[in-house]
């Protein structure tokens, strides 16, 4: 009888913690998102991130400040995963899961693929970089309130947010 009571209590605690965890995710100000695409080369790209909203703020000032390492999203660190070795804007990146950070700038963004995928931007150090690329931001085709990543079969990846598009190629 004692075993049944103990098992019932353990099951109840597990169910309660699961409900609270799900409620916490649903109350996040920035919703989670995942984009997954298998490229023409056969490599699969997965970007797992949270979507901050512009909410009338200025990118580069109040959000994603220019010149500072940023987590490239909200909530937990953004991850970038490739199933095979690829070239990102012509530079080699081994298959694996990376933390994705950036240093936004008015005329240039630095995209960082960190060897550790679970480190916050304020704790990321350059020695943990797997790769850094520099890209030119462009004017987005349309205003996008929630930060969004797109990946097409040809390997074009773009971070689109507000009136900015930050594109790079994965081959």
Automatic annotation (TrEMBL):
It holds the Pfam family DUF2911. Residues 1-21 form the signal peptide. Keywords: Signal. InterPro entries: DUF2911 (IPR021314). This is DUF2911 domain-containing protein.
């Amino acid at each position: 009888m004692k075993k049944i009571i103990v098992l019932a209590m353990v099951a109840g605690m597990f169910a309660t913690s699961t409900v609270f965890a799900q409620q916490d995710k649903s109350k996040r100000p920035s919703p989670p998102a995942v984009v997954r695409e298998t490229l023409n080369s056969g490599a699969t790209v997965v970007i797992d991130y949270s979507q901050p909203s512009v909410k009338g703020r200025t990118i580069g000032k109040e959000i994603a400040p220019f010149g500072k390492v940023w987590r490239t999203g909200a909530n937990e660190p953004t991850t970038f995963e490739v199933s095979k070795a690829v070239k990102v804007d012509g530079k080699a990146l081994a298959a694996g899961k990376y933390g994705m950070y950036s240093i936004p700038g008015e005329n240039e963004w630095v995209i960082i693929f960190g060897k550790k995928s679970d480190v916050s931007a304020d704790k990321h150090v350059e020695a943990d970089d797997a790769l850094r690329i520099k890209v030119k931001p462009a004017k987005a085709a349309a205003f996008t309130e929630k930060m969004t990543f797109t990946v097409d079969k040809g390997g074009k990846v773009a971070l689109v947010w507000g009136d900015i598009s930050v594109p790079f190629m994965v081959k």
